[in-house]
């Protein structure tokens, strides 16, 4: 058997190449939009990719099935409840897809989405897609009512738990994805290990499971509707080459500065938004603060950084980028705040301290007197009134989101300074922990 796992650590997405080296054939499961790694792996293994299998219509990343179909004539298989607008071969529960001597059994596992299927490979391993994760289960609220999705997911998880304990589990997501809340960073597990440790498999009563899982606090992937439409719609082909751009002729463009927070602070283009490529969840964070329909020019420090940023943005549906600049005129300077200076400013009540983390992070502890607004909401017009005439300082856990938030505010005409060297965890002053009614 040929078996390769591909993990996009930025998005927390996993995809797979499965084949029979003797027969020289392979399938790709849940491919990313950038299909080059699968083609390279297939060449290395001396197999030909003969089919794409989709566990479901993805909401958080653009699939590469269209590129496989258009560029290589590879057919695509998905459950008909996906209602795709492209030519496909339907998958049915209990069906076996044969790849040489390798048998892939289809298990319909609705919950995350109605069409969702898992794939049991030679009764030795299971590709669970967005159903069972390592340490968690998928969120049920992206395609249907959360309670309806949770009820379906309960029964799907029960089906998967009936597999042999030795069956290896390879999920469609790992930690870093917004499709679950408590996923492990581990890339695989076994059915037996998950039955012992995964709380989602510990429920015997469907009502209890629904009550525990139908309330989802994790933010929805920011481009859900757009990405689902792209993945369900006509095949999406290869992206156009990204060209250098003259900013002097890009008055209407939004400049996305993907350089480090320090580089952005040292000098950036007027109005640029800083989402550092070097930080975690680059593509997701950029998608939260950008509009897919606006003209986007990348400000990068190298061609390699340009390619990596473009790949990440395209993976979440930003397919038509306007270009990039390397040596831009960058007269604007940031003025980061160090933690010792922040302590003095807070003591003097001289600033509005804006905590830009998520609600659950803030509940675990925040600086007294700070106000709260997640960075991802600031550009949606919710920043009005922040500051109340005082200078604004933004803070998060490590500096990346604080820099995003400060750049968004500054571009909107609200001067803001970020804490980029450290965050709430490094604050030596007092913090307040929020406790909900009934918590211990």
Notes on the structure:
The chain is an alpha/beta fold and 440 residues long. The protein folds into three domains: 2-227, 4-Layer Sandwich (Metallo-beta-lactamase, Chain A), CATH 3.60.15.10; 241-325, Oxidized Rhodanese, domain 1, CATH 3.40.250; 339-426, Oxidized Rhodanese, domain 1. Helices cover 25% and strands 20% of the residues. It has helices spanning 36-45, 65-72, 146-161, 191-197, 206-213, 224-232, 261-266, 282-289, 303-315, 339-347, 359-363, 400-411, and strands at residues 2-8, 13-20, 25-29, 48-53, 76-78, 89-90, 96-99, 102-108, 117-121, 125-129, 132-133, 136-137, 168-171, 189-190, 254-257, 273-274, 296-299, 323-325, 352-355, 371-372, 392-395, 416-418. The strands form five sheets. The chain has a six-stranded mixed sheet, covered by helices on one side. A six-stranded mixed sheet has the order 7-8-9-10-13-14. Strand 1 (2-8) and strand 2 form a beta hairpin. Helix 8 (282-289) packs across helix 9. The chain is globular and about 70 Å long. The termini are far apart. The relative contact order is 0.10. Residues 436-440 have low confidence and may be disordered.
Question: What key attributes describe this structure?
Answer:
single chain, 440 residues, alpha/beta, Metallo-beta-lactamase, Chain A, Oxidized Rhodanese, domain 1, 3 domains, six-stranded mixed beta sheet, disordered C terminus
Mean pLDDT: 93
The CATH topology of the largest domain is: Metallo-beta-lactamase, Chain A
Uncertain ranges: 436-440
Roughly how much helix do the residues carry, as a percent range? Answer: 25-40%
| Major sheet summary line | 6 strands, mixed
């Amino acid at each position: 058997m040929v078996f390769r796992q591909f993990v996009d650590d930025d998005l927390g997405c996993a995809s797979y190449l499965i084949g029979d080296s003797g027969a020289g054939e392979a399938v790709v499961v849940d491919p990313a939009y950038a299909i080059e790694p699968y083609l390279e792996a297939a060449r290395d293994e001396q197999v030909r990719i003969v089919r794409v299998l989709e566990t479901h219509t993805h909401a958080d990343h653009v699939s590469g099935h269209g590129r496989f179909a258009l560029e290589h004539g590879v057919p695509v298989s998905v459950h008909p409840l996906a209602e795709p607008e492209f030519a496909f071969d339907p998958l049915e529960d209990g069906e076996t897809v044969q790849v040489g001597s390798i048998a892939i059994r289809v298990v319909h596992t609705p919950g995350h989405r109605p069409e969702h299927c898992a794939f049991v490979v030679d009764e030795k391993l299971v590709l669970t897609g967005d159903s069972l994760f390592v340490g968690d289960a998928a969120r049920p609220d992206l395609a249907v009512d959360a309670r309806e999705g949770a009820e379906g997911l309960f029964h799907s998880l029960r089906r998967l738990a009936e597999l042999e304990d030795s069956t290896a589990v390879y999920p469609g997501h790992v930690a870093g994805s917004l499709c679950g809340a408590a996923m492990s960073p581990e890339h695989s597990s076994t059915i037996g290990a998950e039955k012992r440790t995964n709380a989602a498999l510990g429920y015997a009563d469907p009502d209890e499971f629904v009550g525990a899982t139908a309330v989802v606090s994790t933010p929805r992937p920011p481009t859900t509707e757009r990405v689902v439409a792209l993945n369900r719609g006509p095949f999406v082909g290869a992206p156009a080459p990204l060209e250098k751009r003259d900013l002097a002729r890009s008055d209407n463009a939004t400049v996305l500065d993907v350089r480090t927070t320090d580089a952005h602070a040292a000098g950036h283009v007027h109005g640029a938004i800083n989402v550092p490529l070097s930080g975690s969840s680059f593509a997701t964070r950029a998608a939260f603060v950008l509009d897919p329909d606006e003209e986007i020019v990348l400000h990068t420090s190298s061609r390699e950084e340009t390619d990596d940023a473009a790949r990440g943005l395209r993976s979440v549906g930003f397919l038509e980028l306007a270009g990039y600049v390397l040596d831009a005129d960058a007269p604007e300077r940031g003025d980061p705040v160090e933690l010792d200076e922040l302590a003095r400013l807070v003591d003097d009540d001289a600033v509005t301290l804006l905590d830009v983390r998520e609600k659950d992070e803030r509940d675990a502890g925040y600086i007294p007197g700070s106000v709260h607004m997640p960075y991802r909401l600031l550009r949606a017009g919710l920043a009005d009134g922040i500051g109340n005439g005082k200078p604004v300082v933004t803070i998060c856990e490590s500096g990346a989101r604080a820099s995003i938030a400060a750049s968004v505010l500054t571009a909107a005409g609200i001067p803001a300074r970020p804490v980029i060297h450290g965050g709430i965890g490094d604050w030596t002053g007092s913090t307040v922990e929020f406790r909900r009614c009934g918590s211990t």
